[in-house]
Amino acid sequence: MNTKPSLELASLIEGYRRFRANGWNPRRERWAALREGQEPRVMVIACSDSRVDPAQIFDVDPGQIFVVRNVAAMVPPFETSPGHHGVSAALEFAVQVLRVREIVVMGHGMCGGCKAALTQELAGTEPGKGGFIADWIELLDGAREEVVHKHGTQGREAEKAMELAGVKVSLANLRTFPCVSELESRGKLTLRGAFFAISDGLLHVLDEESGEFSPVE
Amino acid sequence: MNTKPSLELASLIEGYRRFRANGWNPRRERWAALREGQEPRVMVIACSDSRVDPAQIFDVDPGQIFVVRNVAAMVPPFETSPGHHGVSAALEFAVQVLRVREIVVMGHGMCGGCKAALTQELAGTEPGKGGFIADWIELLDGAREEVVHKHGTQGREAEKAMELAGVKVSLANLRTFPCVSELESRGKLTLRGAFFAISDGLLHVLDEESGEFSPVE
Amino acid sequence: MNTKPSLELASLIEGYRRFRANGWNPRRERWAALREGQEPRVMVIACSDSRVDPAQIFDVDPGQIFVVRNVAAMVPPFETSPGHHGVSAALEFAVQVLRVREIVVMGHGMCGGCKAALTQELAGTEPGKGGFIADWIELLDGAREEVVHKHGTQGREAEKAMELAGVKVSLANLRTFPCVSELESRGKLTLRGAFFAISDGLLHVLDEESGEFSPVE
Amino acid sequence: MNTKPSLELASLIEGYRRFRANGWNPRRERWAALREGQEPRVMVIACSDSRVDPAQIFDVDPGQIFVVRNVAAMVPPFETSPGHHGVSAALEFAVQVLRVREIVVMGHGMCGGCKAALTQELAGTEPGKGGFIADWIELLDGAREEVVHKHGTQGREAEKAMELAGVKVSLANLRTFPCVSELESRGKLTLRGAFFAISDGLLHVLDEESGEFSPVE
């Protein structure tokens, strides 16, 4: 190792050595199979937040979930404007190439992105100083109105309403992709909304008919 | 649970119950602290591929790394064109709000995104049918030329060269963000390139001076 | 391991390692005894269906049950025509060599074999394309008539009636074996009919006098 | 319960109650998904012997393996003679209906069926008194010759050679089914030979190229 040392890197390398001992060596056969290719059956779209790692919360095996993580677990709607559409590319890869059977959008409590969407505290800031976040969470603007109307812009109740609404926005936007809605209607693809409450560690699953999130027992 | 049952969901919920038993309950104090907020010191930008989960490879604790995952671990360059810039928003959040000290870009072997960049097999396809992936991995077009010149467009050698070059592209693009380059020059932020070789499970770290990736012992 | 890797094999091997850790090593004495020979007191005839494993449903110890599994838990009648009679051989082994005291025929809900017997959807297909299944479940033809007369050929009610009737067919066929009927009449062998309802996970036991299956409390 | 009581039944029911507590109730979601149908990716063909339960040795989840069990884990060759071909029907169901990806034939040590094939101690007995077993294990006659030539008909060495040869016979017979050999040649189906040594609890996997069985580490 001839790179600049740091406590951060040291910590990652120590973790990597544990992974070699516990996650790689005893699972040689799985890794040998994964060398040939991946066949995940689930795509998870989650927040970049350091407290809500899907691989940890769902205790998955390597190869089990294809994961997108960004601020607030957002999915922009299908749009063919020029530009680099990262979530759309990942979605296309998961659905068309890997043919996953299920897509889970997982929101979470204490989400900084959703809070900023609610308070609009970053509105008008420059790119690089908050402007990119502001532009990104504009995706929640439509849902925000109803939340603010019911709960105002402050307080945990309003924030949680915004977080739950965000999951529904991403689900709705997923369905604007023709390949998603077609596969869903043919029963080949299932969409799920989920919510991980950091305060008590409970996972909730959305019942889309009632619109309610209920804790998994 | 009144949502449509599936083996995929069942598997995630069973994993979640293991997490409750092993990852939440015995670590109540850590989660109580995380309830108040996150303070990750590292941002990791990794691929969505199901085989390269950073939380598993670095065996991190909850709260330790802020994670972006997309196809091929790409970072688009700083640009202020209209649109939803997901990676830029996450980067801004990590650097400006969370003040991480280190950003790790981790590429990996057998990367489907890098391979498609190399072969250009998806060029010209429609959005939703490969076009989103094609647009996204255009980010690698500059680096591709040199790879193709040296190794052609086929074979594991060419693919690996593309994968390693992709890490360098993302590092270079990170430095087009003024906030990143300024903090790096002041020694407040360290950028790292890393590569996880799926075939033998070895993590490599980039020495930017020599341009070489070397395995961590 | 120099065989072709696959996730299927990896999963089996990982399960085998759990078995070594939890099912073999802590039970060395039992396995040492089993090395000398088996003395199961029960034979179970069950369906090949992946959801109705008798060792799991009865949570048995190694060495406890001698198990035949085939499509629909069928027992052909005693017949001395030339050919390889697999169930007859196993029955002979259990009754004459191992001297089991009890034979349990366990049917189950959502049985694909019974459903095909009911609908006769595979009748006339070629061997290898459905014809083997069609020939096998001809064993249910006699019982089918009454079921169809009462319930028709479609719907869960008809299917369940076929599944329950199938258990009775296998019990009746067991009694065509002279060794079985003789031992039963001498009180040395007990036959049981059982039914595992996949929909609610309830085990039912047949009262042969009334002909009714009742759930075990 | 109004059926004749017995210690055997009592033991099964106690086990079933443990299954309800540990294998059903905490896994409600999995069972709800399995209610909709089974999707096993593996078929296992194993011996009826009470000591070699595949679900225990591979510690599988409900729904994971489709299982045939008969004396000595035999597969008769493809033949279209009249009669009830149980293994052929199960194979057809697994391959054509369920589309499993892998078939594992698992032999085992101390196999009574293989021993009888070797010694031919049951040759000439009447059906019901050993004759069914004798007819069934005639399937091993071809392989027996070579074993006897090398090792004689007595002793653990000869028995083990017969047991290992039996696995290869079943694999060869599997390949006489056109649907199996065609799918295997197209890379859609993998066949495996395995052997569970009761004496030391070690699972061996066959390398078909070398013809050797090696223990899984």
Automatic annotation (TrEMBL), chains A, B, C, D:
It is an enzyme of class 4 (lyase). Binds 1 zinc ion per subunit. GO terms for molecular function: carbonate dehydratase activity; zinc ion binding. Transmembrane segments: none annotated. Its EC number is 4.2.1.1. Zn(2+) binds at C47, D49, H108, C111. GO terms for biological process: carbon utilization. SMART domains: Pro_CA (SM00947). Its cofactor is Zn(2+). Keywords: Lyase, Metal-binding, Zinc. InterPro entries: Beta_CA_cladeB, Carbonic_anhydrase, Carbonic_anhydrase_CS, Carbonic_anhydrase_sf. It catalyses: hydrogencarbonate + H(+) = CO2 + H2O. Reversible hydration of carbon dioxide. PANTHER family: CARBONIC ANHYDRASE. Belongs to the beta-class carbonic anhydrase family. This is Carbonic anhydrase. It comes from Tsuneonella suprasediminis. The lineage of its organism: Bacteria, Pseudomonadati, Pseudomonadota, Alphaproteobacteria, Sphingomonadales.
